[in-house]
Amino acid sequence: xxxxxxxxxxMGEHPDQFQHEADVIRAAxxxxxxxxxxxxxxxxxxxxxxxxxxxxxxxxxxxxxxxxYPHNASRNGVIEACERSLRRMDCDSxxxxxxxxxxxxxxxxxxxALHELQAQGKIRDFGVSxxxxxxxxxxxxxxxxxxxxxxxxxxxxxxxxxxxxxxxxRERGIPVMAYSPLDQASxxxxxxxxxxxxxxxxxxxxxxALAWLLHQPDTxxxxxxxxxxxxxxxxxxVAIELSQEDLSTLDNAFPAxxxxxxxxxx
Length: 266
Ligand SMILES: NC(=O)c1ccc[n+]([C@@H]2O[C@H](COP(=O)([O-])OP(=O)(O)OC[C@H]3O[C@@H](n4cnc5c(N)ncnc54)[C@H](OP(=O)(O)O)[C@@H]3O)[C@@H](O)[C@H]2O)c1
Known about the structure:
Strand content: 5-15%
CATH architecture: Alpha-Beta Barrel
Bound molecules: NADP nicotinamide-adenine-dinucleotide phosphate
Largest sheet: 8 strands, parallel
Radius of gyration: 18 Å
Order of helices and strands: EHEHEHEHEHHEHEHHEHH
Helix content: 40-55%
Number of domains: 1
């Protein structure tokens, strides 16, 4: 799985933005972005339609991630949701298909459907999102070890996942996919500690926030932007090498949790 992807939340919500958003995604692909993250929830299918438009004729080599609603997590519900997503993205398969957050449908049903979709070649891999430790432990044991990822809220200002969840995933070789890695452009990007490290690397605060995540074990980032220049800026963060001193500066300003804390969610 690529370490860097483009998020698409808030895309596909306004018809007058459709072409612009498809153009931005195409520009991202031209820059070398290969992972696109979406969900049936985003624009109620609208973001998947934008992706369908953007990737027409260039599906090969891409890594498509989509998610289904917990209320579609029944055996038939997952299969039908996947088929709708494939139609909207106008493609034959999804590389990584995630349960968007834990719901009330027994996970044995959900995973049965995911195996069926995999056997049919409609998905290559499957995983979960917003799962805390107790949720992960409810997954059928044989499926725990083969999860494609746990996509979670994770950035310098929100390190809750480092309380138990990251370690559980790491022990099983399951990547953590960090969503809202820029904390949705919050005050995080105005932090003095980030500015100090950014100045040393002639980098932007967003690039340092992403580079820090990329220095965490088995971590993938999926920042969203609807502006090509920012996507290039974000992608360039992959090449930034933070020193031990940089990492300590950031750790001191944004400490990891040292007591039980609930996994955050956006
Ligand atoms: N699984 C889940 O429950 C879940 C939840 C939330 C998000 N996600 C996924 O994760 C993706 C990323 O998370 P997110 O969209 O919530 O937040 P994010 O990527 O942390 O931040 C996006 C915001 O940052 C701005 N931005 C992007 N690059 C920037 C830069 N270089 N400098 C300054 N501002 C910048 C964007 O504005 P512009 O667009 O104007 O550039 C946008 O407002 C989503 O799009 C979605 O695919 C998943």
